[in-house]
Amino acid sequence: MILEMKVPSPGESIKEVEIATWLVKDGDYVEKDQAIAEVDSDKATLELPAEASGIITLKAEEGDAVAVGAVVCLIDTSAAKPAGDAPAVAVEASKAEVKAAAPKAAPVAATYASGTPSPAARKILDEKNIAPASITGTGKDGRITKDDAVNAVPSMGTPTGGSRGTERTKLSMLRRKVAERLVAAKNETAMLTTFNEVNMTPINLIRNEYKDAFKAKHGGIGLGYMSFFTKAVTRALKLFPDVNSMMDGDHKIAFDFCDISIAVSGPKGLMVPVVRNAENLTFRGVEADIKRLALKARDGQITVDDMTGGTFTITNGGVFGSMLSTPIINPPQSGILGMHNIIERPIAVNGKVEIHPMMYVALSYDHRIIDGRESVGFLVAVKEALENPMELLMDNNPKKALEL
């Protein structure tokens, strides 16, 4: 029996996925529920499990965009699992049966003259401003195919020695979608950025005193900076609710909850999973949720639901050494807080010069919905909470706040 495996829907709004990686080869024997491919949607990378055991025939190539519901492979469920490493006649017979069952594609006749670009190739070369005469075609009789045009690179001038190799890699669907959203955020919002700096000494003192007890009490969960920043942000969002809102046409949608998107780096690039109702979480709750989501992102197990929604974003470029940046809004949100690296710098304290660990923070916001007073006030409120966490975030009882 030949089973047609179709692309399942990763989410309600997703109509197309891309085959990122086949984890099996054509003609392999696969077990039911074995991961056979990784597919990219515009929100996440997901594994595709085999729906049955049998010999697999692949019907799509890596990099192909495939509609949800389309057939990506065939599985011969009647084939026996081959024994050992010796080639099995049953496997070859099964492959022949599957190929016989597969529909044959009708040949496409060439409609362009020898030595010239096809219409599709010409369009691509025109867009790249590359002369067809500079391309060596790989098609029949030297014809320039669409692939030739796609892979063509404009001249970089006359080489003067040394290595000048290039590598062309197609971006994943997730990366392309991120790029599209970032460009849209720049073009479709009135984005401004305001800056401030935070003296991290008070937080460092609390962490140094309680981090070991916190980790021992809460099963290995560390007391990091993110819980302090998340708590400071949720407090500031309550004080300045316009920052916790978004545009919807001619209307403003305001939220009475704080779903905080946390930008994390995964194997497929930047991902932004969401900590739900962060305003209700304790320090331990925030740290546990961030750890859970970061591990899912690292292991490629993040889901569309994990990254859906979010009313405000926090991104930490400091882990990569960034001193200052202007983070880009994560649409349709209206604000994003950028953290940076901590550097010991001399500052004036009560008329004296002292050295303290300092961090620059940045708030990018949509000026269509957030005025300067709200944006600056919000960032000042974040700074105040981080520089006085004992009173403003812990009610002067750090042991109770940290559940020790």
Percent range for β-strand residues: 15-25%
Unreliable sequence segments:
85-90, 104-112
Give the terminus-to-terminus CA distance. 60 Å
Please state the CA-atom Rg, rounded to the nearest Å: 28 Å
Number of distinct helices: 10
- Please count the beta strands (DSSP E, at least 2 residues each): 19
The largest sheet, given as strand count, sense and whether it forms a barrel, is: 7 strands, mixed
**Structural category:** alpha+beta
User: What is the share of helical residues?
Assistant: 25-40%
Helix-strand pattern, N to C? Answer: EEEEEEEEHHHHEHHEEEEEEHEEEEHHH
What is the molecular shape?
globular
Average pLDDT metric: 85
Question: What's a quick, concise take on this entry?
Answer:
This protein has 404 residues and is of the alpha+beta class. Helix content is 29%, strand content 25%.
Characterize the structure shown.
This protein has 404 residues and is α+β, with helices and mostly antiparallel strands. The chain has helices at 89-101, 119-128, 146-151, 173-188, 201-217, 225-239, 283-298, 372-387, 389-392, 398-401, and strands spanning 2-6, 16-22, 29-30, 35-40, 45-49, 54-58, 65-67, 71-76, 191-199, 245-248, 251-254, 260-262, 264-266, 269-271, 274-275, 312-316, 335-339, 342-349, 352-366. The termini are far apart. Strand 4 (35-40) and strand 5 form a beta hairpin. It has 10 helices and 19 strands. Helix 6 (225-239) crosses helix 7. The strands form 5 sheets. Strands 9, 12, 15, 16, 17, 18 and 19 form a 7-stranded mixed beta sheet that branches. A 4-stranded antiparallel beta sheet has the order 1-8-6-3, covered by helices on one side. It is 29% helix and 25% strand.
